[in-house]
Fold each of these.
Amino acid sequence: MSGISLHKVGKSYGSVEVLHDIDLEIPEGQMTVLLGPSGCGKSTLLRMIAGLEPITRGKLLIGGREVNTVAAKERGCAMVFQSYALYPHLTVYKNLAFPLTMAGEKPEAIRQKVNATAEMLQIAPYLDRLPRDLSGGQRQRVAMGRAIIREPNVYLFDEPLSNLDAALRVKMRLEIARLQRELQATMLFVTHDQVEAMTLAHQIVVMNDGYVEQVGAPLDIYRQPASRFVATFIGSPGMNVLDVEAVRHDGSAAQVTLQNGCLLAVESSDPLLVKAIAVRPEALSFSPDPMKQCVEFAVGDFTILGIEQLGDRAFCYISTTAGEIAVAVDSGVSVDSVTDGGKLGIWVHRDDLLTFDAGGRAISNMQKVAEPA
Ligand SMILES: Nc1ncnc2c1ncn2[C@@H]1O[C@H](COP(=O)(O)OP(=O)(O)O)[C@@H](O)[C@H]1O
Ligand SMILES: [Mg+2]
């Protein structure tokens, strides 16, 4: 049993509260990713779970046991950091063997485990080297090996791939995902990189400013962000969010007025609460003519700022009188071909428009079911 539960867990440094009443379930045998911008409290939360940082308030359980005051080494967690923290004067073999030697295991058992771990992580050829004679990726593997070799109940990773170059990061990401599947281990992985989170996680926990903004499967968070923050943080570029000036409605069908006076039809369970609308760049299309089942994303006069070519995709950035937006376009499209034909509309499928209230929380676009009398 290695699931982790947090009940109203908080952290303060002096009078400054950096984590506020965190309620969270980290399921056993899955990869959970803590995602959020720098300074939002990810490392602090991880260190509290590891037992490296005292908990100010609330209750922390690992495998159903309260561990608030249990020492780090009694919690069954192994941690891998961004800085690999290897012993520089010990060979790879001895670095891997160290935790087992400390635990008093027999030399033969140690040899077997070191060899098996080195095999799994493809570092067997380097067992006699010192860390300084390894590449960044190899060092990272040794650091992971040292965590794995203790067969912990819970793996905690704090941005372990941030120091690697882009290609190696992708490779290590796949390896960590493979390890997780092979070991069926409970892993908690911290990152500020949303691509890393989307590709690794069974469950993503989006954090902002010491609060949990949303918990969910990667695609659910992508498709149904619970807040304006999540809408703009997830996706590259994130969702286009435009403020709303006024709303007129008839049931769940509403017409919102953007800040530049443009009108847009939306569906919302609570039209009167709508203060902003959001749409993904890939849900927008350019067309001079009306598009089937779409509403015109009327944003008034606009100027094309430029097109970002990413090879497989491209994004057209537009300055409108209601705000700046990004529209996904076919790869290779030029500014001239986008504007070809004079009048140009931007169209969006009505279901792809999300609405947010004054506090930045998402409003469902389903019609509310009437409460039975
Ligand atoms: N030892 C400390 N004393 C005071 N404030 C701290 C300490 N450690 C972290 N903080 C503050 O707590 C907040 C969260 O930090 P951290 O958990 O490192 O964020 P993240 O890992 O998401 O970048 C930050 O505002 C940081 O300045
Ligand atoms: Mg951190």
Amino acid sequence: MWGISQLLAAALICLLVWQFLKLRWASRELPPGPIPLPLIGSVWRLDLKFNQETFTKLAKSYGKIFTMWLGHRPMIVLNGFDAVKEALVTNSEDMTGRPMTPFVDDTMKGKGILFATGHIWKQQRRFSLMVLRNLGMGRKGLEYRIQQEAWHLIDFFSNEKGKPMSPSFPIFYSVSNVISAVVFGHRFSYDDEKFKEMIMGVDFMFHFMPSPFRIAYDLFPSLMRLLPGSHKKAIFCVEVGHKFIREEIRSHEKTRDPIDPQDFIDYYLEQIEKTKDDPISTFDYENLVHVTTDFFAAGTETTSVTLLWALLYMVAYPDIQEKIHKELQDVLPPFHKICYEDRKRLPYTNAVIHEVQRIANVLLVGSFRECQKDITLQGFHIKKGSIIIPDVASVLYDPEHWETPRQFNPNHFLDKDGNFFCKEAFMPFGVGHRICLGERLAKTELFIFFTSLMQTFKFQFPEGAKVNIEPKVGGLAMVPQPYNICAIPY
Ligand code: HEM
């Protein structure tokens, strides 16, 4: 006679076998990929240290389009320029969904832009782009704010008097202050504790989103909601950010002039007022909180980390740093205030910034999409609702499009006469209808911050310190190892 534990074990084995067969059956219609196992899917096939090579290695075994299972949910990975372009450019309209996972659902609730889909996404995105343009994105107004912030950053660096310092805090602060100027209409001083807490929260989320705790939350949400762990801290960070933004909104309500909106929140509050009787309007307080959060979440870490990489590459390649200094000296008059237009007469500096973005590839695999219709990709039938992972790293390092894909080489963006040019395979901001909403703002920030710093300082490592350009591994983000640097007045 079998005991209760043997019966339970037999039932469990039957259940696992049944699940395994179900997964095999479901895999039949999908692109090939590692065999999915019950509960964990094909996560077992990922390297413990996930990096920009992981998917490319799998593509060598399974092809340019393959299936990875997260638990019992299939995800289609696209590798290389042709596959990513076919999905995000040729089928752009059908690729505008963002997959909802338990963690995203619990924290973002399908609101805002970054994690929204369908009508909410369309309305919020279109309106936000319009307001950003009104506020001067791509024009002088916003550029002036960035120049001011660059000046604060230079001041911070100058005060260190060439001593070793960590550039990460002042850079994060300056970049966050640009977003603050856009959405709140003002900047925060370096010692504002509440603002600091919010920035730290954004930083924490950037590292948490691709972490094992986040994956565990999405696989076993009911269990994880009960357990302690970094997911609890992540939820707390989101709440802190929302609280901070709600306070700003309340103070705007008291002071705003409806005829003369000054910042994003002013415009949005006016839009809520204007559309309050429209039954299909999605303009409300909650969406305002989430859109504002999205600007900070999507716009601060990405830009700051790119700048951190840029300074690190300058130290790693002193000859390239010297060439930039020479170009700036030859072209710009003394005490010239850098503006975005200057990029046209500084092709080498512009090429270096693009090359930093290409090689640093701060969002390791790009952002996930959800198919809105049945489509055909690379000859495979992909069903509506499928999750798509465009492996942007594989495009930025695609050997068919870059001469020395793994090597830092500004010539990737220069023609034989030294003129700047950009390739289609340069897509750190994504492509298609969901391309980064802040692309123009980010490009202006990167150019003005980086060029202003290079105009003022020569960067080098403290004596005896070794340059390490290996990224910190452990998530889907490519972040440099923490470092100290000396900013020597130039
Ligand atoms: C170097 C800096 C930046 C990089 C590399 C970057 C990259 C990206 C990428 C890859 C996406 C996803 C696109 C896709 O789904 O295919 C994205 C989305 C987004 N970015 Fe950026 N971004 C940067 C800066 C900014 C800034 C400064 C803002 C501020 C407004 C911003 C706001 C957004 C928003 C709101 C989205 C969501 C767009 C949507 O889902 O429709 N980003 N970004």
